[in-house]
């Protein structure tokens, strides 16, 4: 998995989120995201359901009312329409699976 190796090798030097597309077909998209300790994936609004799975390190998934600490091999279902941010606690790599919104015909 070259994408994971690239992010892993670049993580210790990065002061911003590292995001690579791993899969983008049909109605699903899979991103690999790396966050160095203290680096934040800025607040955004989910337009469709999603799922996070941490494969290295730890992250905090934050909403306006809650914060969830996710460690290696933890997964988390992201509901649609939730404003959130993600912060690296310990250098982290996680997968983000998104269901693409349906296009109106």
Topology:
Layout: H1 2-11, E1 18-25, E2 28-35, E3 40-45, E4 50-63, E5 67-71, E6 75-78, E7 83-99
Order of helices and strands: HEEEEEEE
Strand content: over 45%
**pLDDT < 50 stretches:** none
Number of strands: 7
Cα gyration radius (Å): 13 Å
Q: Mean of residue pLDDT?
A: 91
Largest sheet: 7 strands, antiparallel
CATH architecture classification: Sandwich
* Fraction of residues in H or I helices: under 10%
How many separate helices? Answer: 1
CATH class: Mainly Beta
The geometry reads as globular
Structural class: mainly beta
CATH topology: Jelly Rolls
Outline of this structure?
The protein contains one helix and seven strands. It has 105 residues and is mainly β.
Describe this structure in words.
The protein is mainly β. It has a single domain, classed as Jelly Rolls (Sandwich), CATH 2.60.120. The protein is 10% helix and 59% strand. It contains one helix and seven strands. It has one helix at 2-11, and strands spanning 18-25, 28-35, 40-45, 50-63, 67-71, 75-78, 83-99. Strands 1, 2, 3, 4, 5, 6 and 7 form a seven-stranded antiparallel β-sheet that branches. The longest helix is centred in the N-terminal third of the chain and has 10 residues, at 2-11. The N and C termini lie far apart (37 Å). The model has no long low-confidence stretch (mean pLDDT 91).
């Amino acid at each position: 998995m070259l994408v994971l190796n690239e992010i892993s090798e670049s993580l210790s030097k990065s002061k911003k989120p590292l995001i690579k597309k791993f899969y983008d077909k049909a109605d699903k998209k899979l991103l690999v995201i790396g966050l160095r300790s203290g680096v934040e994936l800025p607040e955004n609004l989910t337009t469709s359901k999603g799922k996070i799975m941490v494969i290295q390190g730890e992250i905090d998934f934050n909403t306006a009312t809650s914060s969830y600490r996710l460690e290696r091999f933890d997964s988390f279902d992201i509901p649609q329409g939730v404003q959130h941010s993600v912060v690296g606690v310990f250098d982290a790599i996680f997968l983000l699976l998104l269901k693409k919104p349906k296009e109106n015909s």
